[in-house]
User: Fold this.
Amino acid sequence: MALIHDLVVQGGQLLLVLLMAPLLTGFVRKVKARLLRRRGAPIIQPYRDLARLLQKDVVLADNASWLFRVAPYLIFAATWVAAALVPTFATSLMFNWTADLIAIAALLGSVRFFLALAGLDIGTSFGGIGSSREMMIASLAEPAILMIVFTLALVAKSTQLSTISDFMLSSHVGVRISLGLVLVGLIIVAIAENARVPVDNPATHLELTMVHEAMVLEYSGRHLAVIELAASLKLLLYISLIACIFTPWGLVRADAGLAAYVLGSAAWVAKLAIGGALLALFETVIAKMRVFRVPTFLGAALMLGLLGTLLLFVSRSL
Amino acid sequence: MDGLDFDVAHLFAGGLVLVSFMMLYQDRLYALLNIFALHAIVLAFSVGWQAYIQDAPQLYITAAIAIVFKGIIIPVALHRIIQRLGIHREIETVIGIGPTMVLGIGFVALSLAVMLRVTAEADRLAREDVALALSVVLLGLLMMVTRRNAVSQVVGFMSTENGLILAATGAKGMPFVVEMSVAFSVLVAFVVIGVFLFRIRERFDTVDAQALDRFRRTRE
Amino acid sequence: MSAFPLDLLGLDALNAILVIPAAAAAVLALVPGYRLGARLNVLAALLTLAASLLLLSPDRPEPGRYLFVDDLNVVFIILTTFIGFTTSVFSATYIAHELKIGRLTPQYLRFYHAMYQVLMFSMNLALAANNIGLMWVAIELATLTTILMVGIYRTHEAVEAAWKYFILASVGIALALFGTILIYLAAQPAMGGGVDAMVWTLLIDQVARFDPALLNTAFIFLLLGYGTKVGLAPLHAWLPDAHAEGPTPISAVLSGLLLNVALYAVLRFKMLLAANAGALAPGPLMVTMGLVSLLFAAFMLYRRRDIKRMFAYSSIEHMGIITFAFGMGGPLANFAGLLHMTMHSLTKSAIFYSVGHIAQIKGTQKIADIRGLTETHPVLGWGLVLAVFAIAGMPPFGIFMSEFLIVSSTFAREPLLVIPLLVGLLVAFGALLLRLGNVAFGEPLGSTKPAEASYVPLYAHLALVLGAGLYLPPMLVSWFQHVAGLLG
Assistant:
């Protein structure tokens, strides 16, 4: 009975993230539009876009290889698994022993790998530009993520997300500047990974400013639908990650009643909404950076991670 | 409460190191002045906290001087000078911002390693303060050495002074030096700003120290 | 029984050497005319010298918490006030010329004289300070005044030289203060906090109980920090420009006095380290820095085309030799180092007096444009020849003796090190004599108008150096030997 209960909860989380992802994307777009004094599309518009794309034909280039056709599904699968691992409303899920920060970082790394290859596959110059820029960003974002994971692991003595959330909820935390540095670093990396302003503009198709959009420019039909869903899932993943590490209130711990689950879910939806609104505000306020400044920006995230680790060493060795 | 005392002191000292890095990251002069004002404010908080836990009320005066002079008066004065003299507002660096930051992290790691090992017998707060203060001093010196713009070199010097004040307040009971160093740093800041920037302005149009360097080769 | 009255105008001599320059600075800032200002300057310097001579009395005042007199600083105080006096005499006639050719304006002259006295005050304070924080403050004040005076001509090059001096001096100041704070931290567990933990005479009693690792680290910072002001390579970059672009009296004071005061500060801390058994001997570091400075400066002497710049490198070379001697340690080398500091001050300032006159007569500082001095201006020319012989280390001048002592003590202890030492000395010797030959002899070049200057300071210094080479007063010898023993 307990096994079925756990399976149901885990399956529920799996479906929940899938369903909520387009809603989050629509919400961010709506808030951004409102801030720019437009009315904006309805929040459920992404669902309609996905449905429309699924019904269309796929247009493939002649020289597209098998990788081009398979990549969207690989990307989607990896992102979905990673998103499902992050504790959203409960930390006591069945597979939470696999919800390791390093595993999630590795899954996202593989997503990036396939995306970059798909961009290079057909041989157009836009794809090449997108892939090379993406790799430049990745070469700094990956070390930054690892330093952040390292600092968190030093603080909470584990890289498992559920353990980290439990630790942050407990009273051992204290006032730590290293956690503040890690938060800022994680936000910077999240912005870079999700292709948001100031690193990349998700709404543009101008050559000068594309990174993510350039890699997926040649996709159409159901392939494009799947890739867009994967991008929404990634955004959901990052916001849930930041929420579960730094604002873990409302997470359901051990087996609790239905009321706790409802409360946990409601808390999670609220965190998503706040995170999305803040993201939209940030994107509206700040201007996009020139591409050659992006490495400096990400280097700052790496420095923050390193500094957090160093300061942690100081306070631990005294 | 020893734990909280230490954590908050650590927060402020670590914050000071962070703001030093933010200063290294800047490439515009006005932004640099604003970050320097932040540096002075964080220093003031740190000194104020030390005054509170060491029960040394004279340090409150130091904190007040840090906020008023370095947090408000000097950034405003430099701001006006930059406007009036028309000093151009991009900061040229000798090496790029990326390598500068890497060097900075290297200095921080080095100073932490050296100071924590050497001060094994002192008390916790003093050790942490002195280690992080040396980091701030080295970052300030790095800024002075890797910038061509004379105003940013002056800002680097003043952030070095802030680090020294942090070190002096961390060493419990150090007499007079805090007030003396504050007085001298104010004196130096004014003398330097007043005398040199105006003298430099009379001769040529930019405070770029590399432009100052133009005649180097002919003098042997 | 004291044969010297210790009161001068109702002031204790130790306070007098501080109060007189400070008061003079205040007065000089207000005095308008140039002549009056120059005369007051000389008078104030003379009074300070008289006050410091009173310190020769065997009745020394008790070390206070801020000021004290002991065997080490009494010589340097007297030396400083003496050279301050002779330089003020030189400056009185030199600056008149600068005023005439318009390089300096009258209102800057008030500034110049006031700053001169402030410089004297701060150097005396640094030498007499018993509190290591006060010593730092005094040295910083001295550096600041010299920075301002280096830039006083306000030409492009002068401003650049002063700015570079400021940047490098700030590096030194910061590191030196950090080292001072670390010494306080080392003293705190053994002596409690407060002012007493910074008083040198109290520190030297207790230093055996301090943590050796912390003392070592502190000394490294202090050596780097104050070493920047001594002009040790690789921290010397400000020195040649500052000497070349500032007014010549300031070059004389910089080379002759300020470098010494900075080295004196390093020596005070070396004495602390020597008294703690667990502390690492700082010798090897000082030996290395000294040798590097010596060799570097010696080779650089060949390529200099500006006469003041060349002698600035000569200062770096001699400071390298002195640091090397103190790094070697042992009573003989320490004694030689102390003697060399004294002789070098006198000789180098004499050189800068002559160079100042030459530059004024010829209107240029370039070596290539100055020739045949012994023919056109015999007194000046032969004075220069004697001074360069003295600084190059020829017998019977005093520097020969101190260099000889250094070489022989090195040979006795580390024979291999004698090779680079001798190479450096000989290379420098060759360079100086080569340039001297060009400048003093040969066909006269450039203007031949007479110098409007007084040669008294130049020859007075040379006489002292020659006298010291032949006969050292026993009181001096005993003081130096005592201090050499303490230096470890």
Observations:
- Chain A has eleven helices and no strands.
